[in-house]
Amino acid sequence: MRDSNLKIISGNSNRPLAEAICQFIGVPLTDTEVTTFPDGESFVKINENIRGRDVFLVQSSCPPVNDNLIELLIMIDAARRASASRITAVIPFYGYARQDRKDQPRVPITAKLVANLLTSAGADRVLTVDLHAGQIQGFFDIPVDHLLAFPVLYDHIVKKELRNLVVMSPDVGGVKMADAYAREFKCGLGFVAKKRHSATQVEATSIVGDVKGCDVLLIDDMTETAGTICAAARLIKSHGARRILAAVTHANLQDMGYERLKEGPIEELVVTDTIPVDPKGLPIKVLSVAPLLGEAILRISNNESVTSLFRVKGF
């Protein structure tokens, strides 16, 4: 056991990831009951002494989003009332992140509301991966460690030996993220302009960048219906791209997403396990962020810097 002061507690959203983090660190998962009453209420009981301990609660706010969020808030409250010395909410996927601004009249800023709830429940800090919008860090009045999945994705992508690589964002909003990848790969950059007709229907309208005869890597932070990346991939293919791969940090794939990936021109979709993913026989490669989060947890517990975790090998 590497650190007897460190306690890791898992909710029900992504227990395999929590177990993988514990295996990396070398500590057992803390014995905890996280159950549901017949009426739907969540119940949490920590069966070990955590008084004075450094507690890390692992919970993604993936579907069922509201249940998992409430579960996390109750876990935080349970740890606070059990006299934990510090409580870190480890949220590999931060839900409600797309509701980060008022872009219509009379709508909420739910990403801020969730930040307020986490803080009010008793979280002392937050550890997360690839926020949909970086400014969400400013919604918190407690420290936020915002990790990037790029070092995890890079090792797999570089083995593909892509030729004449061009990194593309499937929409204008993701250009900054795609640019970071392009700079590390030292390759060309482009993006696809789109029109959104509904929550599930997207039309790719035009492309900025030369992809003829090139291998293209589509970069996005999250996908559910795969509408954006598949529409972008079809347009890129029609402009003469040789191969198309996609890398997405959070793959909250629904049935429609699997169907689109099955019919689309994407050769491989590379994702992480911030959300549980079932490839369902499709060319979906799932990479684990457990070592990334595990190393971050160790450094936070030891009051060390996490800056070097943003770098890829060889850079």
Describe it for me?
The protein has 315 residues and is an alpha/beta fold. It is built from 8 helices and 14 strands. The strands form 3 sheets. A 7-stranded mixed beta sheet has the order 10-9-8-11-12-13-14, sandwiched between helices. A 5-stranded parallel beta sheet has the order 1-4-5-6-7, with helices on both faces. Helix 1 packs across helix 8. The protein is globular, with a radius of gyration of 20 Å.
Structural class, please?
Answer: alpha/beta
Question: Would you tell me the overall average pLDDT?
Answer: 93
Broad CATH class of the largest domain: Alpha Beta
**Domain unit count:** 2
Instruction: Tell me the fraction of residues in β-strands, as a range.
Output: 25-35%
Quantity of strands, as a count: 14
Widest sheet: strand ordering: 10-9-8-11-12-13-14
**What level of helicity do the residues show?**
25-40%
Main location: cytoplasm
Function: Involved in the biosynthesis of the central metabolite phospho-alpha-D-ribosyl-1-pyrophosphate (PRPP) via the transfer of pyrophosphoryl group from ATP to 1-hydroxyl of ribose-5-phosphate (Rib-5-P).
Binding site for Mg(2+): 132, 171
Binding site for ATP: 39-41, 98-99
